Amino acid sequence: MPLLNFIKRHSEILCLGGFLFYWFWDAKLSSSFSGFTVKDWMSMANTLATLTLTIVALYGINSWRNEYKNKRRLEVAMDFGEKGYLAMLSIRRVTSPYITYVNPPQEDAENPRLEHAIRTSETRLTLLDQEAESLNAYDSKRYLYKLWLGDFAEETCSKFVRLGQRIQDACDQHVELAGLLPTEKEDFEINPHYKDLERQFNETRLEFSRATPSDLPDYLEQLKKDIDTIVKEHSF
């Protein structure tokens, strides 16, 4: 609707131009104002009054519309920031290096590494499930945020969802790799392939824990900066 948008943006100028056109047309394109009759002057006065009221009305409507948009954008930005911080807090809880096991590992397990991996993953996934409400609440509004705050806001929401999926996948892989690793140290010397599996095993653990040298702390800090940037851009 380019034409409609043009009319909205330049309504005052168009009204003024219409008034001037009507003025000279109503005066029958007289070459001199001295030829105007009382009726001509009254007609122009009525036109001017109508034009003035029209401009005031249009200006008022535009001002109200802009004020509403700005107020609504501010409300959405505040909601974006609030829910973003809640989602970030949820991820921090899930990825805390200090956790209380849902079911502590059994000390006499036949495969201690596998037992520990199962209990650790089980605990992480339980925490992730408990925090799913705040993550889903943030994700469910990503299109609203895109409408009012832009594509960057939607992308920021999506990062939290992908991060939750990343944690879940890492937990599953952690348990799977633990089951593939041998229980005896001697086996690592016999088959070098186990060294690579052990490296992958340790990497998956870092995917769901903010323990050093995980990249999660830096990733979350960047998400925080992104949220702050979007909120400030649309609030001040």
Question: How would you characterize this protein structure?
Answer:
It is a single chain. With 236 residues, the protein is an all-alpha fold. It has two domains: 2-67; 72-233, no CATH class. It has ten helices and no strands. The chain has helices spanning 2-9, 11-26, 38-94, 112-130, 132-139, 142-149, 151-180, 186-190, 193-207, 216-233. The longest helix is centred in the first third of the chain and has 57 residues, at 38-94. It is rod-shaped, with a radius of gyration of 33 Å. The two termini are 30 Å apart. The mean pLDDT is 80. Keywords: Membrane, Transmembrane, Transmembrane helix. The chain crosses the membrane at residues 7-25, 45-64.
Q: Secondary-structure blueprint of this entry?
A:
Blueprint: H1 2-9, H2 11-26, H3 38-94, H4 112-130, H5 132-139, H6 142-149, H7 151-180, H8 186-190, H9 193-207, H10 216-233
Helix pairs in contact: 2-3, 3-4, 3-5, 3-6, 3-7, 3-10, 4-7, 5-7, 6-7, 7-9, 7-10
What composes the largest sheet?
A: none
Strand fraction: under 5%
| End-to-end gap | 30 Å
Provide the succession of SSEs.
HHHHHHHHHH
Helix content: over 70%
pLDDT < 50 stretches: none
- Average pLDDT, rounded to a whole number, is 80
Shape: rod-shaped
Our Rg estimate from Cα atoms comes to 33 Å
Count of strand segments? 0
The SS-based structural class is mainly alpha
Q: Helix count, per DSSP?
A: 10
Number of domains: 2
